Amino acid sequence: MHFDTVIHDGTIITATETFRGDIGISGGRIIALAERLAGGERRIDAGGRLVLPGGIETHAHIAQESSGGVLTADDYLSGSVSAAFGGNSSFIPFAAQHRGQSIDHVIETCGARARRSVIDYSWHLIVSDPTPEVLEDQLPRAFARGITSFKVFMTYDLMNIGDGGMLDILTVAKAHGAITMVHAENNDMVKWMNRRLAEQGLTAPKYHAISRPELAEEEAINRAVSLARLVNAPLFIVHVSTAGGAAIVQREKLAGTRLFAETCPQYLALTRQDLDRPGMEGAKFMCSPPLRDAATQEALWQHIRAGTFDCVSSDHAPYRFDESGKFSAGRDVAYPKIANGMPGIAARLPYLFSEGVMKGRITANQFVALSATNAARTFGMKRKGSIAPGMDGDIAIWNPEARRKVTLADQHDNMDYTPFEGMELTGAPELVMNRGAVIVEKGALRAAEGQGRFVPRAPADLTARPGHIAKELDPAQNFGAPIAARSGGPA
Ligand code: DUC
Ligand code: ZN
Ligand code: ZN
Predict the structure, then answer these.
(1) Is residue 93 reached through a cis peptide bond, with omega within 30 degrees of 0 on the bond before it?
(2) Of 1, 42, 36, which is closest to residue 22 (Cα–Cα)?
(3) Helix and strand tally (H, E) in the chain?
(4) What pLDDT is attached to residue 172?
(5) For ligand 1, atom 8: residue with the closest CA
(6) Strand partners, 367
(7) 414: left (phi over 0), alpha (psi -120 to 50) or beta
(8) How far is the CA of 456 from the centre of ligand 3 (A)?
(9) Ligand 1 neighbour 315 (Cβ under 6 A)
(10) For a pocket test of ligand 1, which of 65, 74, 287 has the largest count of ligand atoms closer than 8 A to its C-beta?
(11) Which pLDDT belongs to residue 236?
């Protein structure tokens, strides 16, 4: 057998197995796994270090305009480089539709921007304007191109599509084998809190955390799940930040609901006290949903360990601490006018490895599941997320003993701060590959701009999520009303 590359003597870790051996790669794919493989134009000696599937980052805002017109600081070059240094071989940023835009236009714009990526990519569509044309023509065209997931918002006046809009999207998505992702926060609760805080002149960044109560997330997750259950459509709850929200996900998974969920490192590493820093420093820690408290961190770790979450994603939303980002509406503005989000695409996996695996909260196999395998299955990346013959040569070699302090320079992004600054982490990805090509090695970038490729995706893997048929949509129980047939069916 001819190998372009052999990775020799690795401790190979998948979501289910750990074994010592060699990996043979040819034509960008893994073609052999064995205790020992001879040959290879290039031989990489792993020396027993951990050989993992390259991470798949499924929540990143890259070259994305907010509804307020602010562009995130990372484009597809800097964003993908930062992801690669963080142990990722592919990512799925968002392609955001703003009101009045066609989905085809959004995909074309993102396609042009993504040509600079150094890692493989796809997009989740954000749908904010579900007109009949979008639902009937444009989304089906996107699915046919292999874009099989999108995000909707239950909050923000310019993005929120309402419960009826969500039912329409869930139904169309299901009919085409796509999965709907949701930002679940109760819009009216948040607006009510904003009004009360403004009336009392409470406008500093720390009040952002108060303005978006835990109950706003819990109520919206519950409602989103009910909407998805009505039409038996798969649903993915993004950035779960509360113990109550996680408990709903756990309950529904036990019941077999077609439900998936993620949480993010910032909800494990930081708290609302971080928003209470001097001056406007707290703005660096503003994201939505907001940071919570130590008890929540503990509960989220328990849910990670117990399998409630499918992914731990970064929600990389890079807005610089200047007029191009956080302060695009001015320096001394009230918190609702400060751009919402924080960077973390390079820190996601080192943080999860250090605090999760090295501190004994999760196993290395769980780390692989949370960082790559579940993402590949949920978002239909058939050749990614594991180490097996036939899979892409997307691999990260980790040194579990490397110790370092997080610095801005190590993030390799286009930001002027990292919220994880100064944290001491153990374990780091030292070599990263995408489709068999080394993209990061010995702290240096080896990838050429634009070598990433678009990945057409398949529907979500719904194994072990049988779902439920609502009586009122079951033709055997609803007097034969053809609601299911029109919607693509709840079965
Ligand atoms: N939602 C996100 O997913 N990221 C940034 C801000 C937001 O509201
Ligand atoms: Zn969101
Ligand atoms: Zn996000």
Answers:
(1) no
(2) 36
(3) 15, 18
(4) 96
(5) 288
(6) none
(7) alpha
(8) 22
(9) yes
(10) 287
(11) 98
The span from the CA of 388 to the CA of 33, in Å, is 7
pTM: 0.97
Q: How many CB atoms lie within 10 A of CB 256?
A: 12
Q: Which fold has domain 54-375?
A: TIM Barrel (3.20.20)
Q: Nearest-CA neighbor of 317 among 288, 274, 351, 353?
A: 288
- Nearest residue to 70 via CA among 375, 317, 287: 317
Q: Which of 149, 240, 286, 315 to mutate to test the pocket of ligand 1 (most atoms within 8 A of CB)?
A: 315
Instruction: Give the length of the chain.
Output: 491
The amino acid sitting at 395 is I
Per-residue pLDDT, 485:
54
- Residue identified by tokens 């874009």 is 147
**Closest alpha carbon to 379 in 123, 135, 130:** 123
Q: Which residues pair with 43 in a beta bridge?
A: 6
Q: Residue 294 corresponds to which tokens in the numbers above?
A: 């130590």
pLDDT in tens, 54-78: 999 999 999 999 988 899 999 999 9
- Tokens 């969500």 -> residue: 166
Are the CB atoms for 380 and 458 separated by under 8 Å? yes
At 109, give phi and psi (nearest 5°): -60, -45
Question: What pLDDT shows up at residue 483?
Answer: 84
What contacts 329, CB < 8 A, 6 or more positions away?
A: 68, 337, 338
Helix, strand, or coil (residue 121):
strand
Indicate if ligand 1 lies below 6 Å from the C-beta of 288. yes
Q: Where are the alpha helices (DSSP H) in 353-430?
A: 364-368, 374-378
Residue spans of the chain under pLDDT 70: 484-491
Where are the domains positioned within the chain? 54-375
Work out the angle at residue 289's Cα, subtended by the Cα atoms of residues 87 and 129, and round it to the nearest 5 degrees: 95
Letter for the amino acid at 178?
A
Distance CA 299, CA 294 (A): 9
Sign, CA torsion 310/237/130/56? negative
Mind listing the pLDDT tens digit for each residue in 70-124? 999 999 999 999 999 999 999 999 999 999 999 999 999 999 999 999 999 999 9
What spacing in Å lies between the alpha carbon of 315 and ligand 1's midpoint? 7
289: left (phi over 0), alpha (psi -120 to 50) or beta: beta
- From the CB of 316, is ligand 1 less than 6 Å away? no
Check pocket membership of 183 for ligand 1, CB cut-off 6 A: yes
Residue 218 Cα to ligand 3 middle (Å): 18
* Tokens standing for residue 112: 């042009």
Position 374: which residue type?
N
> Tokens for 71?
């562009």
